[in-house]
Amino acid sequence: MFVSLSTFTIANDSNANVHEAFKNRPHLVDNAPGFQRMEVLSPQENPKEIWLMTYWDDEESFKTWYKSHQYQDSHKGIPQDTKLVPGSVKIKYFSVVSH
Which domains occur in the chain, in start order? Predict the structure, then answer.
């Protein structure tokens, strides 16, 4: 199993809109080959921070999705007024050792 974790922090007051956009996402990734699930988390102490975790069968499946047009389309639902804290976007990749 392969896990991708993307984190970012919202700089303005659009976090409620961003949370709503994730709740109403178009689910474009759901049928991507190798996709297992997605979790969107926000720490209770900082609701402007978003952690997006996607779980895949393998890294190749993730890379194929990441290069696809559907990946680009999946980001169109982000509210237009969203501003991010500069330097807050971070991406990490994980291999699952045990679960």
Answer: 2-95 (3.30.70.100)
